[in-house]
Amino acid sequence: MREMTILVVDDDPVIRKMLEKRLEKEGYEVLVAEDGYQARKLLAQQRIDVVLTDLMMPGSIGGLEVLDIAKKISSNIEVIIITAHSSIDTAVEAMKKGAVDYLEKPINFDELFLRLAKITNLQAIIRNAQDLSQAMMTTESAAALTIQDLEIRNAEFQGQLNNIAAILRNEQMSADDRIDKLLALLAGSAR
Questions:
Q1: pTM for the structure as a whole
Q2: What are the domain boundaries of the chain?
């Protein structure tokens, strides 16, 4: 089963039902809306990955408005415009506004499934890139802590070496006193 939810928006009940059945047969979760108003409600209430919307629908919320609504909710929602041949220029304009693609009526399901596969692959690549980015941030954070710890330990060792050198150079102390002081210093650092 594909992990993608598709919203079909079309005022034609035959096209809506045909799309719903074919998409469900391919394993997609499908929601349907008969106009832009229902689409707006569903987009606000559900997690939707792809919107297939007719370009021309009655009312003030057509396909371009559904595109705008979807993109305002999440830039990750992909929108495919469904259009009649006469409105190809408008479909191209929709792509400039953020639609991922457009399909002409009557819908060629092979083309539709190829476009959905492309979207699925792109989303998988994006998820993998996000996972890699998170892993890199975690690794960088752990590395920074390790480096910080090593720098602190190095400073402590350098301090001990400086103390040892100072004791060894102190000619005012007898050799036995220097050895005793060095042993005490080393014993304290071993704890």
A1: 0.70
A2: 5-107, 135-189
